[in-house]
Amino acid sequence: MAKHKRPDSLTALQRAIGTRISWARELVMPNQSECARLLGVDASTLNKIERGDRAPSVFLIAALSNRLRVSTDFLLKGVLNGRTDEELALRLAALHPELVLQRQDMAPSTDRNTSSDIPDPPKRPDEEIH
User: Fold this and answer.
1) Within-domain flag for 26
2) pLDDT digit string (tens) for 79-124?
3) What Pfam families does the annotation carry (predicted)?
4) Looking at beta carbons, which pairs linking 43-49 to residues 24 or more positions away fall under 8 Å?
5) Domains: count for the chain
6) 28: how many CB neighbours lie within 10 A of its CB?
């Protein structure tokens, strides 16, 4: 047994990843057992991952991304990438409108890959926010 309880934020993240894996898998291959067999994992393992009871390994995320034809960004962060996830995005939006609402509610990312301290230009009131 672990000495320290896992932070709730990590538990929530694990469940969200499982949900996104489940959504993508259901669209591509509805049979969970068949998907698990093709991935080389036990069906109970994939079931636990989709329920959020178990964290997927980085290797399984890569295999799922390839097998389900979806980006790792979608599986891990819920971010749909342009042309990579275009077909999936349309199908998911039809089945899970909350996913679209989640994307609209997201604040601009503060995670930047540049070391620049130059602030973003101010938004004009007439600009649409996407």
Assistant:
1) yes
2) 887 777 888 888 887 888 776 544 444 444 444 443 334 344 445 4
3) HTH_3
4) 49/17, 49/18, 49/21
5) 1
6) 15
- Tell which wins on pLDDT, 119 or 4: 4
**What single-letter amino acid sits at 41?**
V
How does DSSP classify residue 32? Answer: H
- Length reported for the chain: 130
Residue 13, token pair as written in the block: 């993240």
Distance of CA 8 to the CA centre of its chain: 18
Count other Cβ atoms within 10 Å, centred on residue 82. 8
Contact between 84 and 43 under an 8 Å Cβ cutoff? The reply is no
* 92 within some domain: yes
**Residue 35's domain is classified under what CATH number?**
1.10.260.40
What range defines the domain where residue 62 resides? 8-102
Distance CA 38, CA 64 (A): 10
* Residue 121 included in any domain: no
